[in-house]
């Protein structure tokens, strides 16, 4: 298959590097030098706008741009007959994705949204264990995720509400929501507080969320741009045990999964730990998932329906006026 890239910054470059077996045929960026640099390294023709990518013979187009441009460019890609890997959160609101989903279904094209965290090996293993019934019925999920930004972070595009649609809730918060939905199912009640503690601007720098399913299962989540030491932790509590994922590699620390199996007499659990010290493979595994879905005409794991459900939660939280 042939690949096109729109948005040749950090994420666009990661996506290209993750799939060396795909031939890069076209890359576009408003900063033309970035498109040139990507093509100089991986091949293909560089452009200063997306039209060149849509006119190319790319089978899959990766769209890694500011949030306000995600849905409009996805629509253009589908009209051009391309499958799409659309970076998360997919749009600023659920409504912006409705036409994208309808057109993709009409043309039988696949839309994968970039929820790459599902493909981290510790998280994938945890899902397999849950599906096997290893921890019994899930009671609740607790998640924390954060980084501390960088000098001038509040001057970047993420702090412009017209470009981003929101702050940390739409950034790392949507990863936590996606993973919680994956383990618990749909949320019927959402509550949250979205303060601006440190980074002054139009959007929140923290989000504290309580999300409930129809059965009363709870996801208690905190995503932060004031986490001065990068961290990730996701805990899944079942009636028969607990799974805990810590780290994502790199600055987030060693990725590992701990399985705490409750014994008949309770007390200290039987503990099994898997560690994943190798480089982050989630980007490549996610792209492989999209390619396999295209080849086998099925919906990919983490598709546009997941993005719409995710953004429906986000929309509800912003509608509550939860920003402090």
Automatic annotation (TrEMBL):
Q: Which InterPro entries match?
A: Gfo/Idh/MocA-like_OxRdtase_N (IPR000683), Gfo/Idh/MocA_oxidrdct_glycsds (IPR050463), GFO_IDH_MocA-like_dom (IPR055170), NAD(P)-bd_dom_sf (IPR036291)
Instruction: Determine if Oxidoreductase is one of this entry's keywords.
Output: yes
Q: Using the record's annotation, list all stretches that form the Gfo/Idh/MocA-like oxidoreductase N-terminal domain.
A: 2-115
The organism's place on the tree of life at top rank: Bacteria
What residue stretches are annotated with the GFO/IDH/MocA-like oxidoreductase domain?
Answer: 125-243
**Which terms in the Gene Ontology molecular function aspect does this entry carry?**
nucleotide binding; oxidoreductase activity
Q: Is Cell inner membrane there in the keyword field?
A: no
PANTHER family this protein is in?
BCDNA.GH03377 (PTHR43818)
UniProt-recorded name of the protein = Oxidoreductase domain protein
Taxonomic lineage per UniProt? Bacteria, Deltaproteobacteria, environmental samples
């Amino acid at each position: 298959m042939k690949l096109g890239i729109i948005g040749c910054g950090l994420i666009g470059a990661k996506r290209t590097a993750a799939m060396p077996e795909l031939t890069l045929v076209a890359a576009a960026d408003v900063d033309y030098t970035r498109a040139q640099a990507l093509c100089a390294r991986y091949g293909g023709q560089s452009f200063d706008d997306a039209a060149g990518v849509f006119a190319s013979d790319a089978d899959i187009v990766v769209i890694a741009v500011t949030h306000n441009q995600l849905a409009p460019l996805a629509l253009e890609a589908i009209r051009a007959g391309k499958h799409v890997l659309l970076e998360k959160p997919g749009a600023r609101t659920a409504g912006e994705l409705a036409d994208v989903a309808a057109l993709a279904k009409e043309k039988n094209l696949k839309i994968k949204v970039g929820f790459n965290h599902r493909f981290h090996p510790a998280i994938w293993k945890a899902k397999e264990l849950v599906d096997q019934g290893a921890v019994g019925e899930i009671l609740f999920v607790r998640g924390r995720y954060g980084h501390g930004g960088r000098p001038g972070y509040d001057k970047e595009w993420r702090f412009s509400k017209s470009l981003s649609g929101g702050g940390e809730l739409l950034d790392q918060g949507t990863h936590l929501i996606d993973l919680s939905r994956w383990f618990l199912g749909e949320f019927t009640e959402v509550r949250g507080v979205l303060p601006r503690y440190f980074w002054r601007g139009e959007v929140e720098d923290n989000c504290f969320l309580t999300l409930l399913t129809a059965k009363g299962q709870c996801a208690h989540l905190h995503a932060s741009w004031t986490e001065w030491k990068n961290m990730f932790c996701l805990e899944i509590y079942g009636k028969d045990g607990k799974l805990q994922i810590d780290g994502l590699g790199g600055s987030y620390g060693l990725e590992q999964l701990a399985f705490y199996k409750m014994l008949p007499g309770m007390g200290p659990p039987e503990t099994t730990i898997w560690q994943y010290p190798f480089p982050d493979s989630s980007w490549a595994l996610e792209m492989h998932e999209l390619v396999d879905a295209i080849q086998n005409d099925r919906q990919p794991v983490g598709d546009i329906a997941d993005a719409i459900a995710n953004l429906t939660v986000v929309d509800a939280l912003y509608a509550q006026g939860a920003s402090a």
